[in-house]
TrEMBL record:
Catalytic activity: [(1->4)-alpha-D-glucosyl](n) + phosphate = [(1->4)-alpha-D-glucosyl](n-1) + alpha-D-glucose 1-phosphate
Role, per record: Allosteric enzyme that catalyzes the rate-limiting step in glycogen catabolism, the phosphorolytic cleavage of glycogen to produce glucose-1-phosphate, and plays a central role in maintaining cellular and organismal glucose homeostasis.
Protein name: Alpha-1,4 glucan phosphorylase
Gene3D superfamilies for this protein: Glycogen Phosphorylase B (3.40.50.2000)
Modified residues (N6-(pyridoxal phosphate)lysine): K590
Length: 680
């Protein structure tokens, strides 16, 4: 979510009044804003997308709730020490959080472990361990429309009789200390982006948010006039008309068996009716096609933690497979491919399959991604129900990503086309009238230059490096991942460096290359890439032959509040993932909205951006999805390129020989080995 103060003032139309009031107190509003901690309760684009959606839904006046976990520790703070990433705990609540309000009156129980008893009256989940979910509400104001929605985040609390009701009579002190075990559920965010780590605590977190949220939704439904009924119709007939639940990736997939459990075991609905209501309630957004990111939970773990849910998943799967067998008799291959349960080695539950089967709509997040979802990753499901699969290209909130972070540009635009565009970005097409208005063009350039000067000052203060504000600011900020190809950018930096050294007199457009982003703590290659970038920066920035022509900066601790500073100052936006790997990307949109040019591949939403702006107005390069597929089929041989391209050979040799790591020439062996032998 980032910071809340400035966003709240803007959406309430109070920014100028507050600035003035604070100024009269002898204080500086900007200084005050810098004190607030970022709420960093998610990873990369998926978490930020949820935050943007909340702002947009409130601005559209939709009755929408954002549900999640109130992590005590959010995404780690990144420190760079000696060129390496070091993680520090993000103690963001240290000084309290003025934006949240605890709502103990809505506290709810969540059950774990236990066993299932079957009887004539149905299944009962018994002997469970209980954890309490305490909600904290944060207001989500719409833009100038008198709407305030709610983000409700759950915190885990141990019940007061925790460990005291059973065999623990003797050790009261230990029993109280053991409350931590329950409360650890909301302690810390798992810092993986686009990677699945099948840890028990993570599954607990996923079920915790789901179980608390569904109870909350059902309580609200029953309390509303729609929930009460005199007729013979089931209380829940109108449920899907009143409630829509969007699953943000598969992380809340357990909501599907959980809602079925509530309907069948507790509310005593017949299975078919419960399943019909459940399917009409849920829709699923897929956020990635990378196989290592897909959630596949071991059956043994689910059986231990959520025994009743496993039974329900088996029942869903049985009915699902019976249906497919009736349509495709004797096609065992298809049954195996479409099963919710993956056999072979350890049995696992494919959570994406569960989401597809349990939802009435499935969407990808950009045209190209939605096509890949339909034709490759889930092709069997799309063949079965083509109407279920849709596209919803991602977006960003223009309030935070233009008005808040770039008031100079926002004001310039408003002078030309009015202020309505802030609610409806399609109105930016009105700017077409002014493409030849020299004064306007100059004014826009001037705003960009002012933003660059301001950011250069920030860099000098934070990094003690002198930046040439008239150089091209070439910016590559996002999570560090092989598929996002920060390594390719690094090879380009080395190549530019070599060109300058080879011919120092040759004209070279000065550039400042800024790379930033966090690597998941367990992702060895991503951490090596950070170290390499910093090692290259060390050499480049201290070579007198290069001078101010080329500077390399690794931006420490990239986060929302830092994005708000760097994006408005950017000249060139790097969106260079291998085609077919970046589902959408949203940073790409933020840069374009702030007047940067884009260099990128035909991947994710870059495709729609090129369509909207005209392909001639982006620097599009590299293989398309079809070329990647073809190269995969043919087999990729890195050695060929190394042998054919002298500049590439030189760059790779420098990394390999220790030119950038003289104290440890073999430091980057893993990186070079990856480039030659398993570079996806």
């Amino acid at each position: 979510m980032g910071r809340t103060l400035q966003n709240t003032m803007i959406n309430l139309g109070l920014q100028n009044a507050c600035d003035e009031a604070v100024y009269q107190l002898g204080l500086d509003m900007e200084e005050l804003e810098e004190i607030e901690e970022d709420a960093g309760l998610g990873n990369g684009g998926l978490g930020r997308l949820a935050a943007c959606f909340l702002d947009s839904m409130a601005t559209l006046g939709l009755a929408a709730y954002g549900y999640g976990i109130r992590y005590e520790y959010g995404i780690f703070n990144q420190k760079i020490r000696d060129g390496w990433q070091v993680e520090e705990a993000d103690d963001w609540l240290r000084h309290g959080n003025p934006w949240e309000k605890a709502r103990p009156e809505y506290m709810l129980p969540v059950h774990f472990y236990g066993r299932v008893e079957h009887s004539a009256s149905g299944a009962k989940w018994v002997d469970t361990q209980v954890v309490l979910a305490l909600p904290y509400d944060t207001p989500v104001p719409g833009y100038m429309n008198n709407t305030v929605n709610t983000m409700r985040l759950w915190s885990a609390r141990a019940p007061n009789d925790f460990n005291l009701r059973d065999f623990n009579v003797g050790d009261y002190i230990q029993a109280v200390l053991d409350r931590n075990l329950a409360e650890n559920i909301s302690r810390v965010l798992y810092p993986n982006d686009n990677f699945f780590e099948g840890k028990e605590l993570r599954l607990k977190q996923e079920y915790f948010v789901v179980a608390a949220t569904l109870q909350d939704i059902i309580r609200r439904f029953k309390a509303s006039k729609f929930g009460s009924t005199d007729s013979v119709r089931t209380v829940f007939d109108s449920f899907p008309d009143q409630v829509a639940i969007q699953l943000n990736d598969t992380h809340p997939a357990m909501a599907i068996p959980e809602l079925m459990r509530i309907f069948v075991d507790i509310e005593k609905l017949p299975w078919d009716k419960a399943w019909d209501i459940t399917k009409r309630t849920f829709a699923y957004t897929n956020h990635t096609v990378l196989p290592e990111a897909l959630e596949r939970w071991p059956v043994d773990l689910v059986e231990k933690l959520l025994p009743r849910h496993l039974q329900i998943i088996y029942e869903i799967n049985q009915r699902h497979l019976d249906h497919i067998a009736s349509l495709f008799p004797n096609d065992v291959g298809r049954l195996r491919r479409m099963s919710l349960i993956e056999e072979g080695g350890t049995k696992r539950i494919n959570m994406a399959h569960l989401c597809i089967v349990g939802s009435h709509a499935v969407n990808g997040v950009a045209k190209i991604h939605s096509e890949i979802v339909k034709t490759q990753v889930f092709e069997d499901f799309a063949a079965l129900e083509p109407e279920k699969f849709q596209n919803k290209t991602n977006g960003i909130t223009p309030r935070r990503w233009l008005l808040l972070c770039n008031p100079g540009l926002a004001e310039l635009i408003a002078e030309k086309i009015g202020e309505d565009y802030v609610r409806d970005l399609s109105q930016l097409t009105k700017l077409h009238e002014f493409v030849d208005d020299d004064l306007f063009i100059r004014e826009v350039a001037k705003v960009k230059q002012e933003n660059k000067v301001k950011f250069a000052l920030y860099l000098e203060k934070e990094y003690k490096v002198k930046i040439n504000p008239s150089s091209m600011f070439d910016v590559h900020v996002k999570r560090i991942h092989e598929y996002k190809r920060q390594l390719m950018n690094c090879l380009h930096i080395i190549t530019m460096y070599n060109r300058i050294r080879r011919d120092p007199a040759k004209l070279f457009v000065p550039r400042t290359v800024i790379i930033g982003g966090k690597a998941a703590p367990g992702y060895h290659m991503a951490k090596m890439i950070i170290k390499l970038i910093n090692a290259v920066a060390q050499v480049v920035n201290n070579d007198p032959v290069v001078g101010s022509k080329l500077k390399v900066i690794f931006l420490e601790n990239y986060r929302v509040s830092l994005a708000e500073k760097v994006i408005p100052a950017t000249d060139l936006s790097e969106q260079i993932s291998t085609a077919g790997t970046e589902a959408s990307g949203t940073g790409n949109m933020k840069f374009m909205l702030n007047g940067a040019l884009t260099i990128g591949t035909m991947d994710g939403a870059n495709v729609e951006m090129a369509e909207e702006a005209g392909e001639e107005n982006l620097f599009i390069f590299g293989m398309r999805v079809e070329d990647v597929t073809e190269l995969d089929r043919k087999g990729y041989n890195a050695q060929l390129y190394y042998d054919r391209l002298p500049e590439l050979k030189q760059a790779v040799d420098q990394i390999k020989s220790g030119f950038f790591s003289p104290k440890d020439p073999n430091l980057f062996n893993d990186v070079v080995n990856m480039l030659f032998h398993h570079d996806r």
